[in-house]
Amino acid sequence: MIIIGIDPGSRITGYGVIALKGRQLSYLASGCIRTGGGPLPTRLKLIYAGVSEIITQFQPDFFAIEQVFMAKNADSALKLGQARGVAIVAAVNQHLTVFEYAARLVKQSVVGSGAAEKKQVQHMVRCLLNLSAAPPSDAADALAIAITHCHLQQKRIATCRKTGRGHVNYGFKKRN
């Protein structure tokens, strides 16, 4: 199972790609889509193209993205929402179901505290994926989102098995 996590931003969009085999997480790739300081429509086009390319390259089973949070000013919140939107459209256009996670939930899942700082997230991502160095902040956040998706999916599957209730939809897409 391959999971892509996205930490959206209008200037820097982090991405992280991990695999889950059994209960073992493994790192596949991470990085940042840097759009520079051009006009917003051009930056959105670059985000869409970058996310589409990553999806095409890794053929993920799951796509997870950070939910919108209230930014300090409305302009920043709108730009963030637009960056999220083009990343989501890139995923949906390639027939992926989109899973959204709040930043506090991601920090809680990976670090154990919803109020964790970025350095703590970077450190735990490094440890959980057995990396030789901590990834850049935006990439670490994206990897943390993917890790959170794995943790929550595993918890859901375990709950369904334990209770014997409910159908487990693994969310796999059909491959041609």
UniProtKB/TrEMBL annotation:
GO annotation, biological process: DNA recombination; DNA repair
Binding annotation for Mg(2+) 2: 66
Primary location: cytoplasm
GO molecular function terms listed in the Swiss-Prot or TrEMBL record: crossover junction DNA endonuclease activity; DNA binding; magnesium ion binding
Reaction(s) the record says it catalyses: Endonucleolytic cleavage at a junction such as a reciprocal single-stranded crossover between two homologous DNA duplexes (Holliday junction)
EC number: 3.1.21.10
Localization: Cytoplasm
Entry note: cofactor: Binds 2 Mg(2+) ion per subunit.
Alphabetical list of HAMAP family matching this protein: RuvC
Primary role: The RuvA-RuvB-RuvC complex processes Holliday junction (HJ) DNA during genetic recombination and DNA repair. Endonuclease that resolves HJ intermediates. Cleaves cruciform DNA by making single-stranded nicks across the HJ at symmetrical positions within the homologous arms, yielding a 5'-phosphate and a 3'-hydroxyl group; requires a central core of homology in the junction. The consensus cleavage sequence is 5'-(A/T)TT(C/G)-3'. Cleavage occurs on the 3'-side of the TT dinucleotide at the point of strand exchange.
NCBIfam families assigned to the protein according to its UniProt record, in alphabetical order: PRK00039.2-1, ruvC
Name of the molecule in the record: Crossover junction endodeoxyribonuclease RuvC
Gene: ruvC
